[in-house]
Automatic annotation (TrEMBL):
Source organism per UniProt: Ajellomyces capsulatus (strain G186AR / H82 / ATCC MYA-2454 / RMSCC 2432)
Protein name: Uncharacterized protein
Region of interest (Disordered), ranges: 1-25
Highest taxon in the source lineage: Eukaryota
Amino acid sequence: MDRFQDCVPDATVPLSADPSTSSSPTLRTKIKLYEIFSGDIVTDATLSSAARLFSENYGTWEEHSRNPWKTVKLGARRLREKYLPHPATESYYATVTVDGDLAGNAFYRRWR
């Protein structure tokens, strides 16, 4: 597993020195953590989080489908079957978390 943190502040500096001014933006640091996992160590809990991220944020069925305008769902079992095929050691799962919340991910495979 490769790990590195990107602790770059993602903020605006207040123009006013007076903290009581409600229009002053606040300085907030976001911690971004990027990780890459070999497919053989990806847990069911990790895949459940990936499935939730996909199902809550991506895609709707088209008008002429059997589920028109409904959210496309993708479960953890299907993610493992389709995106981490055997041998899983040649598949990888990359994530980015922001302040501890899964914000993005990617599955990829490396052929030799």
